[in-house]
Design brief:
The protein has 141 residues and is mainly β. It contains no helices and nine strands.
């Protein structure tokens, strides 16, 4: 990570947040309250997608993480917040590449739900699965 007081000003030297090997597609997210999170795939451990809470300065991870999804080859995950709903976007690769979005009202509502080898189950909100041909939606609540 790096930071600057203003984008046009000089940036601080790069600082490593996660020093372990075999992580991919790490992406930060900050909630309205200023709390930072990092989502990343540990591909050396079965492509488990972990969600970490970050320290207040964003330079370190609180190592208690939550595995929120696992699927061989999963990648490209991002976290968003739209209309007070936390949304995770990812691509899973089982027999074909599938774009997947899951949502919850709280960030820790994105709970583990299996190996990703079958259709995901509704855990705490809406799942939208787009396999480049079809879209399924379920209302929240």
């Amino acid at each position: 990570m790096s930071f600057a007081a203003k984008p046009e000003e000089p940036w601080a030297p790069l600082h490593r947040v996660l020093a372990e090997k075999a992580w991919d597609d790490c992406c930060p997210f900050w909630d309205e309250d200023g709390q930072g999170y990092l989502i990343g795939t540990h591909f050396a451990d079965g492509y488990k997608i972990h969600l970490f809470k970050m320290t207040a300065d964003g330079k370190s991870l609180i190592k208690d993480s939550e595995v929120i999804y696992q699927s061989h080859g999963s990648e490209a995950h991002k976290l968003y917040k739209i209309n007070a709903i936390i949304i995770i976007f990812l691509v899973r690769c089982v027999t074909t590449r599938v774009l997947m979005m899951a949502s919850a009202k709280k960030i820790w509502g994105l709970q583990p739900h299996g190996s990703g080898t079958s259709s995901p189950k509704k855990i705490n909100g809406l799942y939208l699965i787009h396999s480049f041909r079809s879209v399924r939606r379920q209302p929240i609540g």
